[in-house]
């Protein structure tokens, strides 16, 4: 056994039985003849070993005189209680322990010869400070009470860890200063009181071995396995950030201590009330798996127990114990579920519903590979543990719900970080003033005097391309069907086939005309209702059957139609949108460093973006129009990058598509308001609405006096209304021409009058297909 746990101590320990010997000497001269004779006889042996009184330095002396010490301590260790009490002689906080009671010795024997008694969670700093507190209480007559319990964790012969509470009796100990001791003033003691966690302060006031602790103490242990395990369970369940493998082992160790089952394993099955499903919890989140579901991720509740009689667990909400799974399997109704358990080497188990407020949260599973280890009697132990499991699962579900809502907010209804502060402020106001008896009216979120920037990169003629691919797929489908009908005619004399062929030819010719809104749906309904039934019911030869199988294999299962040309178009559109959005999002990170601003983007047949910048967006930072100019240059250069990226990826697109780019310049500050019903920002006020009108109509506008669109492929069109805006953007264009990003030619023209809007002008400039790789050609910011 290791006696010296820690090297540094303020105490020099001297084991002595002088107080006990002095008491024995008084008994020897007492009037009680019987006790006097016993005491005198014992003193004769004790006097032969003066160290027992003056102080023992060699611990071997204790080992050699075990019987003598046992007799000396007999009044403190009654023989009648030796099999019941867990008791021994010790020096507090040390591993110097001897004169064990029978019960204490059996506990140590079961733990194994190599087992070392170590106080749980007790380090060298705690040891030093606690030793100092002994001095303060004994010598300076202070009353510093530390109620933190101390424990020994000792395994039994089955490997189950049991927990014992430590109590010390120091009645036979005297503490006195040595020549190294420092006399403490009231101020010193006050300093120590305020610095429990600073061991260096304590070491300064208590030099090493500056005090002598002479005598002996008595340690008494109480089996506190259940109470300690419950406390550990609470701590373990709250330790969310610990390693899950470690947490899982600790979790099972706690249950094993309480149930005294060495191979006990713990499982959890979650319950999803909305879908009436049992779910296997993610091991990375909980550290446990479900034995009920085993390798399945989820199952409807009615299938989880394989029609076993314990389905009643869902109706009665009562714990169900199977003490012998092999015996349980002999009942026909339970055979499937029993085999399911045996496959996992489960011979006995307890299944306990976890319920809060009459709502099922899941099922706690305790399993063992030994029959009868778990049963309906020891299942009662769960009454102590379930409340903590209930709270933990409830917290888990709440956290999960919060995470789901956060994902929904991030992916679907995100509040941009630049304006989040204002939403947070309003939410805090709601919590501080909330009254359940009064409806709270949320204040509208408005940002005044902000400057808008709008831009888009749009797929040119996307509607025409989309309609054409729909026509191509329908024609291809009708061609295949006409070929199949020619084969059918060879094997049958049905006159209806000719009529159906005539109708399909008519639809085929209609596809050469402009595609109407309902044309695709009409043809699909016709094929589904009139053509497919004939094909399915017809008797055909082997070659035709192969053709028919290939035809149905080529039909998209989701749409029920041919999806080849349209798929190429959709895939090309998705590639363009993804690449464009990626460039914009990446560039936005840098743009936010110019000045915090609100940003949003949308994917449709291309990518649109809105920016709003102004003092009200970030009131803690001084705003200057130089930041607006910086953002305008950033926007123009970013659209150049997007145009160039599209040019680079055109060769890999499954369907060739061109893009056009547009910037709308608006120099007057506007107000934006968060629309609660639409969960998005929109311009506020009648005057500001003019900006939205222009934004929605401008991309379809023509050059004034022509039928030519203002946008063109591989070109960026900048629409503005004021002379100073023109001058500003011509400077940016000149700079980007110098950087070899834009071509030399600049087009300038008037935009046709839009409904309610006139006087718009535009600049159009082509992006170079290759951009200089000069390291100096980096994104520019105005100083």
Automatic annotation (TrEMBL):
Transmembrane segments: none annotated. It holds the Pfam family GAF. Residues 307-371 form the GAF domain. It comes from the Bacteria. InterPro entries: GAF, GAF-like_dom_sf. This is GAF domain-containing protein. It comes from Flavobacterium hiemivividum. The lineage of its organism: Bacteria, Pseudomonadati, Bacteroidota, Flavobacteriia, Flavobacteriales.
